[in-house]
DNA sequence: CATGGGGTATTC
DNA sequence: GAATACCC
């Protein structure tokens, strides 16, 4: 089903970014947010990328993290009535949602720091308005395209740019502006829409940064499941397009537990009882086979 | 005691 | 409304 265009936008180490905005002191240096601190330095619930380079992880105790990174800045979650109070992060999340609503009237808040944005209509409007223009490689400054992103370490930016260029050429066919006007008769209509969605998403993330000061990553595909997956492929402060024609290759190497909702008991059951190690294995099963083991809806 | 507070969705 | 599953 490739009818819609959907973006998942995920804030990078959000709680730390909120604290960095409040206190520029901790910007550019290793930092983490902890809740409570009396027992072993508190539990870490967010880590910035500077601190991740030292091996600091979510779930670690503050003391343990200081062992790995002596200069780590630890910021405590405010406490209210004896409990960790996440209100300030929740409010900051609302600021982001407000910006996203400028780009679509269908925005789903999925958590404090994530939202799904239905861009189908926005993309269609943009294509109609911008018809006759094309998308140049340098308009997609922070975009990656799955299947065109093979990096052999070094020159990351060069690999990214080359991949985007090749993909745009294949989608728009020699010269990036052939086969106009663009409409649903275009032989690569779904990819044309993803390309415009990537362009809009670059603008959307720039607007989030300009209006809130926060950076984020995004996934751009035809549904929520794939956009969530794509978002995680290039972080932080980047975005990833996953064209539908690349999905089966991606699935062949992807453990089922990496997909949203399959990270728990259902995923384990698929692996142990149905023999599915990867999403590729799962895709080979028929609906009938799944109905034999799970209830209708789950199947 | 020792990740935990909080969200959605489903089922009974 | 409680219990369960899954998520960040």
How would you concisely characterize the structure shown here?
The protein is α/β, with parallel strands linked by helices. The chain has helices spanning 14-22, 49-52, 62-68, 87-100, 120-130, 156-172, 189-212, 224-231, 247-252, 265-274, 279-284, 287-291; strands spanning 6-11, 31-35, 43-47, 73-76, 79-80, 83-84, 107-111, 114-118, 143-145, 216-221, 239-241.
Give the arrangement of secondary structure elements:
Layout: E1 6-11, H1 14-22, E2 31-35, E3 43-47, H2 49-52, H3 62-68, E4 73-76, E5 79-80, E6 83-84, H4 87-100, E7 107-111, E8 114-118, H5 120-130, E9 143-145, H6 156-172, H7 189-212, E10 216-221, H8 224-231, E11 239-241, H9 247-252, H10 265-274, H11 279-284, H12 287-291
Parallel strand pairs: 2-4, 9-11, 10-11
Antiparallel strand pairs: 1-8, 1-10, 2-3, 5-6, 7-8
Helix pairs in contact: 4-7, 5-7
The structure holds a DNA duplex (12 and 8 nucleotides).
């Amino acid at each position: 089903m490739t009818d819609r265009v959907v973006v998942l936008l995920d804030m990078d180490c959000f709680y730390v970014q909120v604290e960095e905005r409040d206190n520029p002191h901790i910007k550019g240096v290793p930092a983490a947010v902890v809740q409570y601190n009396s027992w072993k330095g508190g539990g870490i619930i967010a880590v910035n990328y500077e601190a991740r380079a030292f091996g600091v992880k979510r779930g670690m105790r503050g003391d343990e993290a200081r062992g790995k990174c002596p200069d780590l800045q630890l910021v405590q979650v405010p406490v209210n009535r004896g409990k960790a109070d996440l209100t300030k992060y929740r409010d900051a999340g609302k600021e982001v949602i407000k910006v996203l609503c400028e780009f679509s009237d269908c925005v789903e808040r999925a958590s404090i720091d994530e939202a799904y944005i239905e861009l189908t209509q926005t993309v269609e409007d943009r294509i109609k308005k911008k018809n006759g223009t094309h998308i140049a490689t340098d308009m997609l400054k922070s975009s990656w395209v799955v299947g065109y992103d093979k990096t052999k370490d070094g020159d990351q930016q060069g690999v990214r740019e080359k991949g985007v260029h090749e993909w745009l050429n294949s989608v728009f066919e020699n010269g990036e502006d052939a086969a106009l006007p663009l409409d649903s008769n275009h032989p690569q209509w779904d990819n044309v829409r993803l390309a415009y969605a990537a362009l809009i998403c670059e603008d959307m993330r720039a607007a989030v940064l300009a209006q809130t000061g926060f950076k984020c990553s995004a996934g751009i595909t035809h549904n929520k499941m794939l956009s969530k997956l794509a978002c995680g492929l290039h972080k932080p402060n980047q975005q990833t397009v996953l064209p539908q024609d690349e999905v089966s290759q991606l699935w062949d190497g992807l453990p089922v537990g990496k997909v949203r909702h399959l990270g728990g008991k259902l995923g384990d059951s698929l692996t142990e009882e149905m023999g599915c190690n990867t999403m590729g294995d799962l895709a080979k099963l028929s609906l009938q086979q799944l109905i034999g083991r799970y209830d209708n809806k789950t199947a």
